[in-house]
Amino acid sequence: MVGRKDDDYMDADSDSGASFVIDDDDPDYEKGRSKGSTAKSKKIKRKDKGKGKAKEQPYAWEASYTRSWDAVQEDETGSLQHAVEDLMAQGRRRRLLAPTTAIRRTIIRHLVLLLDLSESMMDRDMRPTRFDLMLEYAREFISEWFDQNPLGQIGVVGMRGGIAERLGEMAERDVSGNPQDVLKCLERRTSLEPSGEPSLQNAIDMAKATMAHLPTHSSREILIIYGSLTTVDPGNIHDTLDACIKDKVRVSVVALAAEMKICREFCEKTGGTFGVVLNEGHFKDLLFELIPPPAQRGAGKGSGSSAADLMMMGFPTRLPDSSPKALCVCHSILKSEGFLCPRCFAKLCDVPTDCDICGLMIVSSPHLARSYHHLFPVKAYVSIMELSTEEQSTASKTCHACSTPLKLQSVPGATLAAGLSPLDRYRCPECHNDFCAECDLFVHEVVHVCPGCG
Ligand SMILES: [Zn+2]
Ligand SMILES: [Zn+2]
Ligand SMILES: [Zn+2]
Ligand SMILES: [Zn+2]
Description:
zinc ion binding, 454 residues, Rossmann fold, vWFA_dom_sf, single chain, nucleus, six-stranded mixed sheet, zinc
């Protein structure tokens, strides 16, 4: 299409009889002429020069860019089904291969999510826009985060117009342990419309202030989704960085555009992670990598940190729906259902929370139990590459969990990526039962208990 247009243009030019400038020394010009054009104006020559360059000498970043569709191999029948399944299985397996040794982790987490709501979020380099994609993933992230960290609390802060603003109606409580409350802040898209410039310093200061009162046993984390390449700050942002290090606030950044030095510095100095998004899928991966609780920093180092701190927790009494109405201490709403603080008998709406009256941490026992699996993860199952002849007679023919028939022999000629079993058979190192790939995933991501070990 472009070439066609040029030819038209050249013809028109030569007809007009304009004066031509010929520069025979220029090799690019030769190319232009060899293409069969008769026109010789300088204007055209310059145009050709650009075009020739783009064809033969790609930019450095173009050369190193591997296209995802080049890596996909068709199988003998020319179908992509197999390749796609492989890629999916590989992705699932990668997440499972996280270290399974016992690490001291913070299970009482406090996270403030900083969302970039500046104009740069309207960029369409991610579909439909960065902004819409961010909202979608943020919602998924929050649901998953609460699922894995039932004792955690999240606050959401937006950055736009050079200031930081708390989102949603959590005015009197900056962070909430209720997923519905947090998701509500991201519900009304119109109220989040991006505008102006973001301010990293304002937002981090606000997030830090939100978590300033927290006791030492809970984590203080900030997760920034940043699409802009600039920040408008009222003061020196390095002072904020120093304050974050002092207060042990962990800052992680997921950048949508490119790396900014100050962002990386924040992550490196506070022990967080930094990542630049490559595509939509990678964006989600980067976010979801931040869901498991972080290993506790400084464990083993120093004198005070290696000893475990005991902390006081209260298990509340749940009030039946038929109980007389009373005001809750958190919202001052007259209602009958709720929970009673075991120490001061104040009435609370939701658990987990900190009692507003006596400050006791209130949790329900299922919440506590659900946080437990992070401390004792199920060991990764070993993928079985092949079964010896005697094993073939003794090995179970079905998955131990779902009774799906398992293969005893691999299909000859089938090539599989590293880490995947050609038999689709994964064995628990503890109880030596075999599981299918689906159950392997389900056990490690949802159940967190091996059905064979009990
Ligand atoms: Zn309340
Ligand atoms: Zn209380
Ligand atoms: Zn199964
Ligand atoms: Zn087992």
